[in-house]
Specification:
Layout lengths: L1 H17 L16 E5 L15 E10 L13 E9 L21 H10 L18 E2 L22 E6 L5 E9 L30 E9 L1
Antiparallel strand pairs: 1-2, 2-6, 3-5, 3-7, 4-6
Length: 219
């Protein structure tokens, strides 16, 4: 009985003393984006005024950051990514929104979240251009093939994917084409995409889409 009490006292004493000693381990990290995405116009694409059943084409380039492609950096060699499309907010001056708090939003990211949840609110969000945009590789990437696009007139769940590899595929070039739809009741006889017509009341409207290049894996 006395031995048990003695052991408990010693353990308690060690715990109490340890509270008076501390060791500091300095932890730092330099965090940088792995990818860069750009167009001939910088960070945006403008098709300007277009007409039903017209075809227009732009390019999007995706490459690695300077740090990722540094010659002495061999810990990670590849980046998987996807090109996601989302509703585009009318920013910074929406007309009037269904959500009363919208005018109090301070950043475009808050507006994007709102339009992602309320794409039908055309006073705050552009009518969707996304389904009519293709994301197609401009050329065949080196083996093993890793870039897969989607044509225009596609469903929201159809997503383009690609890979940047430090050794043999440091830049991907994508064709972003706009295959302009027609309006209901106004399509030509050679219209090839039944079911994809735009509502007639949207004639003479501005349409929009945000393309997000999102990293899914670094290895």
């Amino acid at each position: 009985m006395f031995l048990l009490v003695g052991i408990l006292v010693v353990i308690a004493g060690v715990v109490a003393l340890s509270a008076y000693e501390a060791h500091v381990v300095n932890v730092t990290a330099h965090i940088e984006n792995a990818l860069k995405a750009f167009t001939a116009e910088g960070d945006h694409i403008s098709f300007g005024t277009v007409f039903p059943q017209e075809y227009r084409e732009r390019r999007l380039w995706i490459t690695s950051s300077e740090s990722f492609c540094a010659g002495d950096q061999r810990r990670v060699l590849a980046i998987d990514y996807k090109i996601v499309q989302k509703p585009k907010p009318i920013w910074p001056e929406p007309i009037m929104c269904l959500e009363p708090e919208y005018p109090d939003f301070e950043t475009i990211d808050e507006a994007r979240i709102y339009c992602h949840q309320n794409p039908e609110d055309l006073d705050c969000c552009y009518p969707l251009l996304c389904p009519y945009l293709s994301k197609i590789p401009a050329y065949e990437d080196p083996y093993p093939y890793t870039d897969y696009g989607v044509p225009a007139f596609h469903e929201p769940e159809d997503i383009a994917i690609g890979t940047i590899h430090k050794d043999n595929d440091l830049q991907d070039e994508w064709i972003i084409d706009l295959d302009v739809p027609c309006f209901e009741g106004m399509c030509a006889q050679d219209w090839e995409h039944p079911g994809w017509e735009l509502p007639a009341e949207l004639e003479d409207s501005d349409f929009g889409c945000d393309l997000w290049v999102e990293v899914t894996r670094i290895y």
